[in-house]
Amino acid sequence: MNRRRFLKTTAAATAAGLVPGFVRELGAATPIRVGLMLPFSKVMASLGDSTASGVMFGYKELGAEIEGRPVQIIREDDAADPSLGLSKVRKLVEKDNVDVVIGTVSSGVAAAIRNYMHESKRLWLNPIATNDALAEKECSKYHFRFSASAGQISAPLGAWGKAKLGDRAYVIASNYVYGQQTSAHFKKTFTAAGGQIVGEAYPPLGTNNFAPYFQPLRDSKATMAFVNFVGSDAVAFVKQYAEFGLKSVKPIGPVNLVSEDVLPAQGDAAVGFYSISYYTPSYDIPRNRWYAKAYREFSQGKEPDHFNSAGFDVMQALYGALKSTKGDASNKDKLIQWIETAKLDSPRGPLRFDPKNHNPILDQHIRIVEANPVRSTVVDVLKDVTHPEGGCTL
After folding, report:
1. pTM to 2 decimal places
2. Exposure pattern of 325-361 as b/e (b: 16+ CB <10 Å)?
3. What are the structural domains, with CATH classification, of the chain?
4. pLDDT digits (tens, 9 = 90+) for 267-300
């Protein structure tokens, strides 16, 4: 199979949500086995699909082999279920004998697999899961995060929101690890800046009717609302928030609230929503101009977002580290050392890792959704954002 046909087939397979099986046949050398564990079903399916697409874009761009060894990607669906995720990652390590695990999206799954990944001494490249514990008491030398901790995508919004959107905030977020952690960080920094929390609500993950939560929010006389929902929950919340005429209470939250994977379904209802993100498709820097164009071509017109850009950065780090060992995936210390000191040329802007906890150090964009076309544009950039106080030391 020639390279042109290989790349064309890879892109087509990825767009269909498949991992090309022919990577196993690229040569006689022992493959480098990469486990890709993401939620491909249930409420976070769109998030997993987009992250996987970024991984496969990186695979296409960086090549099907490293130092003569074919790269074999083995895909598993954790469905954002912690017990299922632990079972699937055990299968990847013990049955498939993967050299590295890329995963996951869910903070709950990340917590469930942390001890097993640390004890198995497998390199764990975490594209999305924000669980604070991975930068604190449960950090691991084998783990690197490529998105941000819950603290990095919520704590900065407290002072910024108080200064820009008012001093009375209502908090509403999904009742699971991610929603709880981000809400706690926002409340801490918002009140420290002199703001007042005037109400809270925590609907269960998978809520599709938010009407019961809106009257208490309206009655609170809040000037702004910290909001955190993901996937189909985010679509439902944003559309219903607009239908109830609540946008005078300025909404702000982590990127997933109005991320590019859900924005088409939200449409004009999302206009005026603020968010924080490490990646914005319209961000005008050379690396992102290349990435946005190339990714749209690869994905047959789909919009780049923070999920697939993180997936691409995972592959940049993985390939760079493996090239430093000449394809030796067993040399964990050298792989870790390379990533610890790397300065990745990311579509988001500069990306490096904190050596004390392997959390990213990165710029964060404050964005607002605008109309015609409906998209997020950057209104402020917070430089070199690190995990808040309380991080661990490896």
Report:
1. 0.86
2. bebbbebbeebbebbbebebebbbbebbbbeebbbbb
3. 3-148+284-362 (3.40.50.2300), 155-277 (3.40.50.2300)
4. 999 999 999 999 999 999 999 999 999 999 999 9
